[in-house]
Write a structure and sequence with these properties.
With 115 residues, the chain is an alpha+beta fold. The chain is built from 3 helices and 4 strands; from the N terminus they run βααβββα.
């Protein structure tokens, strides 16, 4: 999985890169190698915003895009929430596809008489 990391109002250093790599390792196990993931990290400097660290991830997979966004006091918590949400959406997508295959409904092409 290719991860493109960008930051808004925050400097992307080696520690953040390692943190993103660790958090998105679970996501990488769920998707094929050629999937592209955009991770945007942002920090709000307004002291009235309690959860000023923002992490957003956009995954381009076959058949669509999966998006997740999370706010937290710490960047590691925001990244954890985003990666958990992406994994949840990927599992839901995979399970729905399996259910459709298992349903065994007849195709319109195989119905007697067709259309």
């Amino acid at each position: 999985m290719q991860i493109e990391l960008t930051g808004t109002n925050i400097e992307i250093d080696g520690r953040l890169r390692r943190l993103v790599g660790r958090r998105f390792a679970r996501v990488a196990r769920q998707v094929p190698e050629e999937v592209h993931c955009e991770v945007v990290l942002a920090e709000e400097h307004n002291p009235r915003i309690a959860e000023g660290k923002i992490a957003e991830a956009n995954l381009r997979v076959k058949g669509g895009t999966i998006n997740a966004k999370a706010h937290a006091r710490e960047m590691s918590a925001a990244l954890g929430r985003v990666s958990d949400e992406i994994v949840r959406q990927l599992r839901r997508r995979r399970d729905r596809a399996a259910d459709r295959r298992r349903a065994g409904s007849e195709s319109i092409r195989t119905l007697p008489g067709g259309i």
